[in-house]
Amino acid sequence: MTVQPIRLFGDPVLRTPADPVVDFDKELRNLVRDLVETMQDEGGAGLAAPQLGVGLRVFTFDVDDVVGHIVNPVLSFPDEEEQDGPEGCLSIPGIYIDTKRRQNVVANGFNEHGDPIQLVGTGLMSRCVQHETDHLDGVLFLDRLDAASRKDAMKQIRAAEWYDAAKPPLIKESPHGRGIFGLGR
Ligand SMILES: [Zn+2]
After folding, report:
1. What is the pLDDT of residues 74-114, one digit of tens each?
2. CA 126 to CA 60: how far, in whole Å?
3. Which member of 15, 46, 78, 144 lies 3.0 to 4.6 Å from 132 by CB, making a disulfide possible if both were Cys?
């Protein structure tokens, strides 16, 4: 288990939908350990496998001292309540933009051993679960912003020292309608 480098905005792996996990083997458990260790080393609230360059549907979370992981998550929303607040991403360092998400979420999936689990999230945990599940679909929180906020975010990103102009990023429209659903730190 080791801290791994995090892929940054502009890396195509962040725009590639991840594959469902089929084998709940030692390799998966090593991946979960790498995700937890890297997430905690960076002080993040969550980390998805594509951010380490691995195209599998698994993410870890660390919200209000609740640390865990979920494999092959499927989200549902128990109500219509929304939240709005600053959201960031370890793959887009230093950029925080108010992003609308659902206040409550239920994630059904599996643990690293293949046992079914259910994760019920509210507030920041709900934001985290939506943000990380988006990563598994190749979606970034920028995609959830309205046009003005996205323009502001892109301006900040272009000015960021980590930004590589040689790898132009792709912003896509949210398939779910803007600003409803996504994570924070
Ligand atoms: Zn992220």
Report:
1. 999 999 999 999 999 999 999 999 999 999 999 999 999 99
2. 13
3. 46
Q: Using the 8-state DSSP alphabet, how is residue 184 labeled?
A: -
Q: For residues 99 and 84, is the Cβ–Cβ distance under 8 A? A: yes
- Is 176 assigned to a binding site? no
Catalytic annotation on 80? no
**AA letter at 83:** Q
173 pLDDT above the threshold of 80: no
Q: Is 131 annotated as a binding residue?
A: yes
Distance 117 CA to ligand 1 centre (A): 22
Percent above pLDDT 70 for the chain: 88
Active-site hit among 27, 42, 87, 132: 132
Binned at pLDDT 50, 70 and 90, residue 20 comes out as: very high
Cα 113 to ligand 1 centroid, rounded to whole Å: 25
3-state secondary structure of 152: helix
59 has pLDDT over 50: yes
CA of residue 45 to ligand 1 center, whole Å:
9
89 is in an annotated binding site: yes
